[in-house]
Structures are given as C-alpha cells and as structure tokens.
Specification:
Number of domains: 2
Mean pLDDT: 75
Low-confidence stretches: 1-28
Number of strands: 6
Helix content: 40-55%
Strand content: 5-15%
Distance between the termini: 86 Å
Length: about 290
C-alpha cells in the first residue's frame, strides 16, 4: 500500500483534523461537497493528510536520502521552499525518523544527521537575535534551502535523462559484419580466356599480313624489353592493345611468347576485373 493510499483510507487530518469523524454527504444534495467536518462542508481533500507510521516500512525505501524525504514533506504540503515552516516540518520529520530507528538502525544514521540540522535551525530561529548580529547571521534556513533547491534541480535533470532512450534498455543497436580488404582481389585469368584472347589477336593479325616472303631474326628478349617499356608509361594495357603495330603473324607470335616469359618471371601480371571481361596486362612491380 502506498503512502497516499494509506492516508486516504485512514481519512485523518493532521493535528485537530485527525481526531474528527468525517461523515458521508448526500451526493444528491450537493455534489461539490466531499464530506462534512463538525457539520461544516469539506469541498476539497486536505493537502496535509497525516501518513500513518506503519506505512513507513513501504515507502521509505523509495527515498534517496534525507534531502529526498524532506523535499517530499515540503512539496506534499505545498509549503513555500523559500519560507519553510521549520516547526511543522521538523515535527513530521522526527516522527518518520523515530519509525526508521525502530526498524533499520543503520539507515537511520543518515536521517538523524538531517534531524539534528533541522533542530538546530529551529532553535536558532527561536532565539532572539541582536541587531548587530542580523547582518552576519542571516536566515538560518538559507543553507538548507540552497541544498534543497540544488537537489531538486538534480533530481529533475536525472528524471529527464532517464526518460531519454538508452542503449540496451530501450533499443538495441544492430551489428552487421562486412568483410573488407584494402588489397584488391582480382579474379584469376583462366587458360580458356587467354586462349580466346590470343585467337582474336591472331585473327586480326592475319587480316593485315602481306604475302612477302622474307627471312628475319626475331629476338624474344627484345620484345620482352619493348613490353616492359610500354607498360612503364601506363598502369594497365589491354591485352589486344599490346599487339598493335606488330606486323605479321611471326612478329605477333614472338611478342606473345615474350609476354608469357615475362609472366613466368613474375615481371608482369595478367588480370581481368570479372569473368569474361577484357584482359589487362600490368607491371608486377613499381618502376623506380
């Protein structure tokens, strides 16, 4: 049972109101009257209802400390926090502390410190003050009011922060693993792709051949040097462009053999972006 519920069921008012009997009212006669107190109509529920001590075992755990309990008492009875009636607040606070001491002595230590402060402030307000001490002493409640206002601001800010959606409490962040690599993964050139590209080069070479019989000595090493020199000026060269301007079939064959020798010695790489894509030739090293 909550404190407000326990107080409502007891229907008792603090001080003189607590001893009075509240008689039900005929709702047909006057719907605005909630009850009658000593014959007088009660038009609204009192804001200073007495909380039974037995309810302390239930609701004291909800307070964060003595400041929280003190702020609850002030706000519950609509007291002005800048002008706290110390006599009433201290009396109610001490009643709660007495109940705490009966059930939880360790918890009561922290609340007893605040009770001592309230009694001190109450005593200082009762003592007469000299005119010369007015400026130096000031209001004994000033420090307590400052602490209560700061605590209330922090409490409201904490409540607002708690209302913000939090990770792993209100939502879950999805995680997706994507494998990435800085090194490009080029598809391997199939022997069939290389064969088809070579046949295409041979076909174009036969279209430009001349029926001139001559004897020439062709050097594979010279063609290897020419290929390397050509690849140094550009990053990639298409396979077919490597044979432009090479003349007849014998020269094209020697040029192709030179390219295979370079690939065998890992001086060049033969790659393609995807299957059935154009074949490209590039240097396997970075030129100086």
């Amino acid at each position: 049972m909550l404190p407000d519920e326990a107080a409502t069921e007891s229907v008792a008012v603090e001080q003189d109101v607590a001893a009075a009997e509240i008689a039900p009212v005929d709702a047909v006669a006057d719907p605005a009257v909630l009850a009658r107190l000593y014959g007088a109509p009660l038009l609204r529920m009192p804001t200073d209802l007495f909380i039974p001590p037995d309810a302390l075992e239930i609701f004291l755990d909800a307070f964060e400390g003595p400041l929280d309990l003190l702020l609850y008492l002030i706000r519950k009875q609509n007291f002005n926090i800048l002008d706290i009636p110390m006599a009433q607040v201290t009396l109610q606070y001490l009643k709660y502390v007495d109940q705490i001491r009966l059930h939880n002595l360790e918890l009561a230590a922290e609340y007893l410190l605040m009770a001592a402060m309230l009694i001190e402030i109450k005593s200082r307000m009762l003592l007469p003050q000299r005119k010369s001490d007015d400026d130096e002493a000031g209001d004994p409640r000033a420090e307590l009011v400052r602490r209560l206002l700061e605590y209330e601001q922090i409490k409201v800010a904490a409540y607002d922060l708690n209302a913000v959606p939090q990770l792993e409490r209100d939502f879950v962040r999805p995680q997706l693993f994507i494998e990435q690599s800085n090194v490009p993964n080029w598809p391997e050139v199939d022997a069939g792709d290389l064969q088809r590209a070579w046949l295409d080069v041979l076909k174009r070479a036969t279209l430009t051949q001349h029926h001139k019989i001559s004897r020439a000595e062709l050097s594979v090493r010279e063609h290897m040097t020419a290929i390397l020199r050509q690849l140094q000026s550009t990053r990639f060269v298409e396979f077919g462009d490597l044979f432009h301007g090479q003349g007849g079939v014998p020269i094209v064959v020697v040029h192709f053999v030179a390219m295979l020798e370079l690939a065998k010695e890992t001086l060049i790489e033969i790659t393609q972006a995807e299957p059935f894509a154009p074949i490209y030739v590039r240097l396997a090293y970075t030129p100086a």
